[in-house]
Write a structure and sequence with these properties.
Pfam families: Hydrolase. One of its GO terms (molecular function) is phosphatidylglycerophosphatase activity. The protein has six helices and six strands; from the N terminus they run E-H-E-H-E-H-E-H-E-H-E-H. It is an alpha/beta fold.
Length: 166
């Protein structure tokens, strides 16, 4: 188990993550945060672009799995069903239990798994602790919760280091 706040890579959006690159690195399972990573907060349906991206992952042999800390499991379930992917809500990130359960459900090991998210202290820390490849994206939108601005400001140095690793 590793305690690191540094993402292995940072991308502008999930759409910039190529399934072929993941597959070439031995990754066959991509765990993804929902809010501000795959979709805006409160979005109920995936965008057409996200659906095409998911299809490109599958074509490269990479399965997508939503791993969310959302306290609204019905919304996560609805979104995951609309996208046609498995999910786990109330995952408890940065704890590793949700990561382990997702990998067990999908029959994958940490070396075959990556996690993508927009937050250092949940998604990236959890991924590093679980021993999976930690991919970070810029948040889709910041408006709304004022605390989000502060959190992202604190996370910026870690994002900057991750951007240089790309």
């Amino acid at each position: 188990m590793s305690f690191s706040l540094l993402p292995h890579r940072v991308y502008p959006t999930v759409l910039d993550i190529q399934g072929e690159d993941l597959s070439a690195a031995g990754i066959t399972l991509l765990l993804a945060d929902l809010d501000n990573t795959l979709a805006k907060y409160k979005a109920l349906e995936p965008s057409p672009e996200l659906r095409r991206w998911k299809a490109s992952l599958e074509a490269a042999g990479v399965d997508l799995f939503i791993l969310s800390n959302s306290k609204k499991p019905m919304r996560v379930e609805r979104y995951a069903q609309a996208l046609g992917v498995p999910f786990l809500g109330r995952a408890g990130k940065p704890g590793t239990g949700g990561f382990r359960r997702a990998m067990e459900r999908m029959g994958r090991t940490p070396s075959q798994t990556a996690m993508v998210g927009d937050q250092i202290f949940t998604d990236i820390l959890g991924a590093r602790r679980a021993g999976v490849l930690a991919l970070m994206v810029e948040p889709i939108e910041l408006k709304g919760n004022p605390g989000r601005y502060l959190r992202y400001a604190v996370e910026e140095p870690f994002r900057a280091i991750g951007r240089r690793r790309r």
